[in-house]
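Folding Query — how this chain folds
Tokens — whole-number codes for backbone shape
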Amino acid sequence: MKILVIEDDATTGTYIARGLREEGHVVDLVENGRDGLVAATSGSYEVIIIDRMLPQVDGLTLVRTLRGAGNTTPVLFLTAMGSVEDRIGGLNAGADDYLVKPFAFGELSARVAALGRRPQAVEQDTVLTAQDLTLDLLTRKVTRQGREIDLLPREFALLEFLLRRKGRVQTRTMLLEGVWDLSFDPMTNVVETHVSRLRAKVDKPFDTEIIKTVRGAGYRVDG
């Protein structure tokens, strides 16, 4: 297999890379999150091993960015952050497996082999549209009628979530879970506030509305 290892500790990274190469794998090793993100998006890897505490771009951000861009390569977090909350956070970010340091190389090898045997998921579209609006996940640009719209990260995530479910009503609970990763209602108007801000940017300056309110149910993107 072709494997990417993103590990800022030189001793650990060299140990992992050497061990995997001895098993016959092709291994690329990088030492920071920025270079890791470039390698992960430009190379064709079958498994990616990522430390969470990386310089320049942390592991969680790196994985979320990959998943947001439609990259479905299996990811294994290898990290000293081993609490239940840490594991949940890593898996929710898009990782496929989670191994805590210190680790036995035999277990790492077995987990990598298991990930490599998984069928690759069909990659998601990287350009989403509704009427005359376009959202590009790779460039992180949103345009409507040729005009670029500047969105904050949460507004971008909210629009992406709605576009992926175009034509279907999304309830407040669905939005809290899908955009804010909350499994409970914080009893605030966070959803309504962000929908209003998003509408002010993608709807109000134009002739037609894309984001519709379905009274008593939620919101829906048409087009």
The chain has two domains: 2-117, 127-221. The first strand starts at residue 2 and ends at 6. The domain at 127-221 is CATH 1.10.10.10 (Arc Repressor Mutant, subunit A). The two ends are 42 Å apart (CA to CA).
